[in-house]
């Protein structure tokens, strides 16, 4: 049945629509931290639909909220008052840390970043953008144009002039040999030099932890230091929290808070986990930025009642059950467990991450050269052992991406680590 579905997939969907595994997997249902395929095989899910099933599969509180809302009305558009949308916006604005915040809902992280770029360029009257090397911000025309990861950038055409800054990857690049303070100083000096050679940019957009790039991040405080330089020149800071938001990193509710010394970002984008699988994205900005557009705009599907009901229920569950704290505790144990394994596997260059957002970088032993074939092997072996993980990486990197639902238990973390250990040792 799966082979038949694969053939039908290839006949009608694009060749560039990536599928994991030599024998692609059809997931039919899930519960908690587990999913099942069409053949009845059970898997521990350590990727959560690319960090989207943030809380748990088939979470009763969310499925009940969706069913009840669907029984009343599913959609009406932003042309009418929408109580669930207002209620979720109020909660998100309070949690954002941005003063006088306004919230605009979209259907995806790509669309959220698109909106942030529109706001920043309109507010600043500039089409120049600063972005980080190794970054990923979506698959629309404008977000592809600012993505600093060649593997996810299919065109060089763009409505924006994009300049790329050092700092998103701590352990690679020209400053990797420096300690954290000197690394930050060098990146700030590079930013200042870059600004001396260009017209004033609209904004810097940055992921606090680079997701598609392999869960890489700078030293804490780097973006705070950038913020000081940007603020002096009126340049906005956009924090792309599509993967890092809602407590996944454990230590903070938002990824930007590891860089919060100089205040919150001007704009925050979010998506993925807030809907626990429902299609929600959004932008948070202070009122003067959000209200700068001088033409009409709506969102046909952004903020639709059924997705807002899911978001409200999911956010309530996340906060009431302290899933941020669970990500910190269980994620910390998982990272240490994987580092102990990595010390015995020559292909593992680094285990990095925060909370339940963990990257395992693989290289050819004794070198810094990427080992994509090793990553593919581990992905397959982990699946054979009953564990689903992701992969990523940018320029000459290959990394495994581990991001389970944030309700992961200690026992499940140990089980997943044991499966991953066997997979790593199989390279």
Rounded mean pLDDT is: 97
Structural class: alpha/beta
User: How much beta, percentage-wise?
Assistant: 15-25%
What is the 3D shape? globular
Give Rg in angstroms. Answer: 21 Å
For the largest sheet, list the strands in their spatial order.
4-10-9-8-7-5-6
Distance between the termini: 30 Å
Q: How does the major sheet shape up?
A: 7 strands, mixed
User: What is the count of DSSP helices, taking H or I runs of 4+ residues?
Assistant: 13
**Which regions contain 5 or more consecutive residues with pLDDT less than 50?**
none
Structure description:
The structure is a single chain. This protein is of the alpha/beta class and 427 residues long. It is built from 13 helices and 15 strands. The chain has helices spanning 2-12, 48-51, 60-72, 83-96, 109-124, 141-146, 180-195, 222-232, 287-290, 305-320, 323-342, 372-384, 410-425, and strands at residues 27-31, 34-37, 42-45, 101-106, 128-132, 161-165, 203-206, 236-240, 267-270, 281-286, 348-354, 357-362, 387-388, 390-392, 399-402. The strands form three sheets. Strands 4-10-9-8-7-5-6 form a seven-stranded mixed sheet, with helices on both faces. It has a four-stranded mixed sheet with strand order 1-2-3-13. Helix 8 (222-232) links the parallel strand 7 (203-206) and strand 8 (236-240). Helix 4 packs across helix 10 (305-320) and helix 7 (180-195) packs parallel to helix 8 (222-232). The longest helix is centred in the C-terminal third of the chain and has 20 residues, at 323-342. The protein is globular and about 55 Å long.
């Amino acid at each position: 049945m799966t082979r038949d579905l694969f053939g039908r997939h290839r006949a009608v969907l694009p060749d560039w629509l990536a599928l994991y595994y030599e024998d692609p997997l059809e997931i039919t249902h899930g519960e908690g931290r587990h999913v099942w395929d069409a053949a009845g095989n059970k898997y521990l899910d350590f990727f959560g639909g690319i960090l989207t099933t943030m809380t748990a599969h088939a979470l009763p509180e969310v499925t009940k909220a969706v069913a009840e809302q669907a029984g009343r009305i599913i959609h009406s558009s932003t042309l009418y008052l929408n109580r669930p949308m207002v209620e979720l916006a109020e909660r998100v604005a309070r949690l954002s840390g941005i003063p006088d915040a306004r919230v605009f809902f979209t259907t995806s992280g790509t669309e959220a970043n698109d909106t942030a770029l529109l706001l920043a360029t309109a507010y600043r009257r500039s089409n120049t953008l600063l972005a980080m090397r190794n970054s990923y911000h979506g698959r629309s025309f404008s977000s592809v144009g600012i993505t600093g990861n060649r593997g996810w950038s299919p065109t060089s055409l763009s409505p924006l002039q994009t300049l790329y800054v050092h700092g998103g990857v701590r352990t690679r690049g020209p400053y990797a040999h420096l300690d954290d303070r000197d690394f930050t100083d060098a990146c700030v000096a590079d930013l200042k030099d870059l600004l001396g050679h260009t017209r004033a940019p609209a904004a810097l957009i940055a992921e606090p932890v680079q997701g598609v790039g392999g869960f890489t991040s700078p030293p804490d405080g780097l973006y705070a230091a950038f913020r000081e330089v940007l603020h002096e020149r009126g340049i906005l800071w956009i924090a792309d929290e599509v993967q890092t938001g809602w407590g996944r990193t454990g230590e903070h509710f938002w990824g930007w808070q590891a860089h919060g010394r100089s205040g919150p970002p001007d704009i925050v984008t979010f998506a993925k986990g807030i809907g626990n699988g429902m299609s929600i994205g959004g932008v948070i900005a202070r009122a003067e930025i959000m209200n700068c557009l001088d033409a009409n705009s709506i969102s046909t599907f952004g903020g639709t009642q059924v997705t807002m009901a899911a978001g409200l229920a999911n956010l309530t569950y996340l906060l009431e059950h302290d899933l941020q704290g669970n990500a910190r505790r269980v994620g910390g144990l998982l990272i240490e467990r994987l580092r102990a394994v990595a010390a015995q596997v020559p292909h593992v260059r680094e285990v990095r991450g925060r909370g339940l957002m963990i990257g395992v970088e693989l290289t050819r032993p004794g070198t810094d050269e990427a080992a994509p074939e090793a990553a593919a092997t581990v992905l397959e072996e982990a699946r054979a052992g009953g564990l689903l993980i992701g992969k990523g990486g940018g320029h000459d990197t290959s990394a495994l991406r581990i991001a389970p639902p944030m309700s992961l238990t200690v026992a499940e973390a140990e089980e997943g680590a044991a499966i991953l250990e066997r997979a790593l040792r199989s390279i």
